[in-house]
């Protein structure tokens, strides 16, 4: 009889200890595992005083937000359609950084030729808010064209960053590759 009572007490004691251990473990983990909500990521706001003064607030807003499409128009054939490329998020950020560079907005020097862009970049915030950036690597100029096709601004290319970025996007284009190789010398 004594053996049975001892076994029963030992079993109850073991059960009580096991239950206490589980309860203590559960209460400690519930206190430390608070669900923390992720903070909303703030939208990236571009502020560039030089860009704002050079092109205006409304054009800068279109340039720094919305969808970006790059069109390569440097083919020799007149019937060939431009090669369109919708940029990824990372490439869009790089392009916006390059376009907002203060050295991009240096005064235009007189040119002695007609600007024929090899690359056109369409910034589209909505159907009515569009601006096109045309880059002529031969004359080393870039222009801003509104939705109606009227040239709004014209600047000189001071650096080869946009050419390098275009070569990154279109590595198989012969003209862009030749211009890029000449610029490295």
UniProtKB/TrEMBL annotation:
Keyword Signal: yes
Keywords of the record: Signal
Signal peptide: 1-26
Name used for this protein in its record: Lipoprotein
């Amino acid at each position: 009889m004594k053996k049975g009572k001892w076994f029963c007490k030992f079993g109850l004691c073991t059960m009580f200890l096991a239950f206490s251990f589980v309860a203590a473990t559960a209460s400690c983990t519930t206190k430390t595992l608070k669900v923390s909500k992720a903070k909303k990521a703030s939208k990236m706001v571009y502020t560039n005083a030089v860009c704002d003064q050079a092109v205006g607030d409304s054009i800068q807003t279109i340039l720094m937000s919305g969808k970006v499409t790059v069109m390569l128009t440097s083919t020799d054939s007149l019937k060939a359609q431009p090669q369109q490329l919708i940029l990824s998020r990372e490439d869009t950020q790089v392009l916006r950084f390059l376009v907002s560079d203060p050295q991009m907005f240096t005064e235009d020097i007189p040119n002695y030729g007609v600007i024929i862009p090899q690359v056109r970049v369409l910034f589209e915030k909505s159907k009515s808010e569009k601006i096109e950036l045309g880059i002529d690597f031969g004359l080393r100029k870039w222009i801003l064209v509104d939705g109606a096709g009227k040239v709004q601004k014209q600047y000189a290319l001071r650096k080869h960053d946009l050419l390098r970025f275009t070569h990154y996007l279109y590595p198989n284009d012969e003209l862009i590759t030749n211009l890029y190789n000449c610029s490295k010398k």
